[in-house]
Write a structure and sequence with these properties.
single chain; mainly alpha; Helicase, Ruva Protein, domain 3; Zinc Finger, Delta Prime, domain 3; 2 domains; 10 helices; 65% helix; globular
Length: 197
């Protein structure tokens, strides 16, 4: 059947395809679409479908889908089933915590309030059913957003620890313990770099 059969594998993460399969394929990389392209297409879809969409909701869809049009359209469709498409609805549909809640958890840790930040973590894990990997990705997004006013050197350290934490979680370590350890490190380094007691 090799003369008449072809397979096309579409994936977001090449590293999740095992090497024996990768070695027998031709790779075509499609880069994330630009924000204006995704936003304009989603606005067009909203108009055609007569869906009520807020500009901030559309931008949130882009932010959480990182230029993946297929995923963006799926999120838009799911969010529109709740009525108005706004940021809150998008996060609810995706089962993600509101950025302000993640930011609050990080601020508590950086202020040296480890126990409070850990309670916030537990709340996020239970309320939203987040995995440790989801929490790490949301903290990463907050680190990139510049909403947190912290020294660059501290931001770099946290990014490094985020990578370590995600790796350990992927390797099978307990989610809550790993993210708690990350928050503990943030508390220690927050005191050192920001001087919060």
């Amino acid at each position: 059947y090799t003369e008449s059969t072809r397979f096309i594998l579409a994936c977001n993460y090449l590293s999740k395809i095992i090497d024996p399969i990768q070695s027998r394929t031709a790779l075509f990389r499609y880069y994330p679409l630009k924000k204006e392209d995704v936003v304009s297409r989603l606005e067009y879809i909203c108009k055609q479908e007569k869906a009520e969409c807020e500009e901030k909701g559309i931008e949130t869809i882009y932010d959480v889908t990182s230029g993946d049009m297929r995923k963006a359209i799926n999120v838009l469709q799911a969010a529109s089933s709740y009525g108005k498409v706004d940021s809150e609805t998008v996060f609810k549909v995706l089962g993600l915590a509101q950025p302000r809640e993640v930011r609050e958890m990080v601020r508590l840790a950086l202020a040296g309030k480890f126990v409070d930040s850990r309670e916030k973590l537990r709340s996020l894990l239970v309320t939203y059913g987040l995995s440790g990997e989801d929490v790490v990705k949301q903290i990463h997004r907050e680190m990139l957003s510049n909403e947190l006013q912290i020294p660059e050197e501290l931001r770099v350290l946290i990014m490094d620890y985020l990578g370590e934490t995600e790796y350990r979680i992927i390797e099978g370590a307990d989610d809550e313990i790993q993210v708690s350890a990350l928050l503990a490190r943030m508390a220690v380094f927050g005191n050192k770099y920001i001087g919060v007691k």
